[in-house]
TrEMBL record:
The keyword Cell inner membrane does not apply. Its cofactor is pyridoxal 5'-phosphate. Residues 7-356 form the Aminotransferase class I/classII large domain. Keywords: Aminotransferase, Pyridoxal phosphate, Transferase. This is Aminotransferase. One of its GO terms (molecular function) is transaminase activity. It comes from the Bacteria. The keyword Transferase applies. CDD domains: AAT_like. It comes from Marivirga lumbricoides. Gene3D superfamilies: Aspartate Aminotransferase, domain 1, Type I PLP-dependent aspartate aminotransferase-like (Major domain).
Length: 361
């Protein structure tokens, strides 16, 4: 629709600025020297070692590179392979909504039953009491996503306490934590990865994305971290799902990770973009919902229109030339709170043009 109407596209979550030339050169160099055949099924050892080193450097937790890390075709494949390996017919999986759109289809394809639980409003925090009340003898997995897409919410220390207590009270429950925006977090806050806690790490499957971190979403490369026994099962699906991942890119990223600035500098860059966009729309009737991570900004249009969010998003695209995502699309029941998601991983020119449109409405 954005293309058909020549609209500014702040809907899909992809950056419009270039990938690091250094990283592109590393990929090209590895192609040139002949790294173009299959990599090992779990990923190149050199890359898994680099990932383990990064995890320990940031969180202080030692991860076994051989048995607890698998390189995947993006985070989506990591999520799909993990769900297919770990749940099946008769199992229930709790999903916190609004949720990224690949979660529920993967659960259903595995033959399991998704159990959607709404996050608290307006801060999109987990409703731990409701989560507890939803657990049955069939509940196998809880899925969480922080920093959260679409809201930009993050976990607080008290959430980690609740999460640990929950897993202690339900020993059969597994956690799947989608942390693809781990390096995009704002206002001096800390990303509270479940891998920073030894107990949580022992019960969790954790998913990451190099595409998000290095703004190369089209490369489709990520990884999954899990205890050895769980990873053994995930690799069975991964092996027959895709077998392995693009080899020259694995070599390139392994080298690129050696410089921590290549991933630790993202916060400042994206925070400036968030602030620029929020300031630019401050004169409009749209209300900014605080975003503490990711590269998404939710705006409320309560004071602008009574239209359902899907209709208003279509109107915004067709009549005003600005594409966004209605947040109801992230709910299985299409819950509508008059919220739209905008991606601010764009240049200032694009963000200013988008803000100008919003300020005219």
């Amino acid at each position: 629709m954005a293309t058909e109407n020549n609209a500014l596209n702040l809907s899909q979550g992809f950056p419009e600025f270039p990938v690091s030339q250094e990283l592109i050169d590393l990929v090209y160099r590895n192609m040139q020297i002949g790294h173009n055949q299959y990599a090992p099924m779990p990923g190149l050892p050199i890359l898994r070692e680099a990932i383990a080193g990064k995890i320990q450097h940031i969180g202080g937790v030692a991860i076994n590179a051989d048995s607890e890390i698998t390189v995947t075709v993006g985070a989506a494949e990591a999520i799909f392979s993990s769900i297919m390996a770990l749940v099946g017919k008769g199992d229930e999986v709790i999903v916190l909504e609004p949720a990224y759109d690949c979660y529920i289809p993967a659960i259903e394809l595995a033959g399991a039953t998704p159990v959607p639980i709404p996050l608290n409003q307006p801060d999109f925090s987990p409703n731990w009491q409701l989560i507890r009340e939803s657990i049955t003898s069939n509940t196998k997995m809880l899925m969480i996503n922080y920093p959260h897409n679409p809201s930009g919410a993050i976990l607080k220390p008290e959430d980690i306490v609740e999460l640990k207590q929950l897993l202690e009270d339900y020993p059969e429950l597994m956690l799947l934590s989608d942390e693809v925006y781990e390096h995009i977090i704002f206002d001096g806050k800390e990303h509270l990865s479940v891998l920073k806690d030894v107990f949580l790490a022992s019960r969790s499957v954790v998913v990451y994305s190099f595409g998000k971190t290095f703004h190369a979403t089209g490369w489709k490369i990520g990884y999954v971290v899990a205890p050895e026994a769980i990873m053994h099962e995930i690799r069975k699906v991964h092996q027959y799902n895709c077998f392995t991942v693009n080899t020259p890119t694995q070599f390139a990223i392994a080298e690129y990770l050696q410089n921590e600035n290549n991933y630790l500098s993202l916060n400042d860059m994206y925070e400036k973009k968030r602030d620029f966009f929020a300031n630019a729309v401050s004169a409009s009737k749209f209300k900014v919902v605080p975003s503490y991570g990711t590269y998404f900004q939710i705006l409320s249009y309560d004071e602008v229109s009574d239209l359902p969010d899907m209709e208003f998003a279509e109107k915004l695209t067709r009549e005003y030339g600005l594409a966004s995502i209605p947040v109801s699309a992230f709910y299985s029941n299409k819950k509508d709170d008059h919220l739209l998601r905008f991606c601010f991983a764009k240049g200032e020119d694009t963000l200013q043009k988008a803000a100008d449109i919003l300020c005219r409405i």
